[in-house]
């Protein structure tokens, strides 16, 4: 392409499910309901942890961070997605796309790191219970959580700068319902080698490291639990990490399923985008449900709060 004939892209078009117009309005209702449940559920977890002093422990401190991420992460994409489903206006400005990609990658990355920190917290609690309060001090917990947020946002800043430093002079139609690295990079008319290698190397190293920390922590946790002689002791030990283990499994299973299905040649582009939509909204909605159903302390605080609210309304 002649350099003088290149046109500068000032906005992008989010394709979303424009090739499946018959499902637009049903999907709007479904995703709007899921998003509201996500906000209410994670908001209730934050309220319970903030209001109850007995929940002011490292485990619930990290859970509060997870609930914040589960509010922020879908909020980076779902409102725009709902607008696109409801209206014919599917454009997003160049700067808006950059900001959406930055926050989406930052928050998703932070969640990966946070899950590994939460696994480490459960590892210390179960494998070294006598030293737990000495290791997981308030200052150490703040450092760990701040480190996860900093790592997630710095990693995203690197990817965002390299992605939007590319030249865009081809089609401006993003083959997704939000701005993500692969579909945006695919629109570039300049060399994408550095941006793609950055995703593979930096993303691979950080992602695999976080996965290994989580996996190794649970290998030691399960090994320690199996050594406990009494059935009651095993049950109590397992109950302290069961919710987090379910959340970790849900997170990684949905990620693997999403990318395997999306990369399958049998899938239509529309179906791949629909799978990505489900991944982006289902996991943040299920996390607070898992913690409220599996965790007796959180369930007790929420029940007490609801009973108190009902009592005040009757007066």
TrEMBL record:
Bilayer topology: Multi-pass membrane protein
Record's GO cellular component terms: plasma membrane
Chief site of localization: membrane
GO molecular function, one term: G protein-coupled receptor activity
Cited SUPFAM superfamilies: Family A G protein-coupled receptor-like
Annotated transmembrane regions: 27-48, 60-78, 98-120, 141-162, 197-221, 242-262, 274-293
G-protein coupled receptors family 1 profile domain sequence ranges: 41-291
Subcellular location: Cell membrane
SMART domains: 7TM_GPCR_Srsx
Keywords: Cell membrane, G-protein coupled receptor, Membrane, Olfaction, Receptor, Sensory transduction, Transducer, Transmembrane, Transmembrane helix
Alphabetical list of PANTHER family matching this protein: OLFACTORY RECEPTOR
Family: Belongs to the G-protein coupled receptor 1 family.
Protein name (database record): Olfactory receptor
């Amino acid at each position: 392409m002649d350099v003088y004939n290149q046109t500068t892209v000032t906005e992008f078009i989010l394709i979303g499910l424009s090739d499946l117009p018959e499902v637009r309005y049903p999907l709007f209702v479904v995703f709007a309901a899921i998003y509201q449940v996500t906000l209410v559920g994670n908001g209730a977890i934050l309220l319970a942890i903030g209001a109850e002093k007995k929940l002011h422990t490292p485990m619930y401190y990290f859970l509060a961070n997870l609930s914040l991420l589960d509010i922020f992460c879908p909020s980076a994409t779902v409102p725009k997605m709902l607008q696109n489903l409801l209206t014919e206006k599917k454009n997003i400005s160049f700067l808006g796309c950059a900001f959406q990609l930055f926050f989406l990658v930052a928050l998703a990355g932070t969640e990966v790191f946070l899950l590994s920190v939460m696994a480490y917290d459960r590892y210390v609690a179960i494998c070294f219970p006598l030293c737990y309060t000495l290791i997981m001090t308030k200052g150490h917990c703040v450092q760990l959580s701040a480190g996860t947020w900093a790592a997630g946002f710095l990693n995203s800043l690197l990817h965002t700068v390299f992605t939007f430093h590319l030249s865009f002079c081809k089609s401006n139609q993003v083959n997704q319902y939000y701005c993500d690295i692969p579909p945006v990079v695919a629109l570039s008319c300049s060399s994408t080698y550095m941006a793609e290698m950055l995703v593979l190397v930096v993303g691979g190293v950080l992602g695999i490291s976080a996965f290994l920390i989580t996996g190794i922590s649970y290998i030691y946790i399960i090994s320690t639990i199996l050594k406990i002689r009494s059935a009651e002791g095993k049950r109590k030990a397992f109950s302290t990490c069961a919710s987090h283990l379910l959340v970790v499994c849900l997170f990684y299973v949905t990620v693997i399923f999403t990318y395997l299905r999306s990369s399958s040649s049998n899938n239509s582009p529309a179906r791949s985008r629909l799978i990505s939509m489900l991944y982006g909204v289902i996991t943040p909605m299920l996390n607070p449900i898992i913690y409220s159903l599996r965790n007796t302390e959180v369930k007790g605080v929420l029940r007490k709060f609801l009973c108190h609210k009902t009592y005040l309304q009757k007066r």
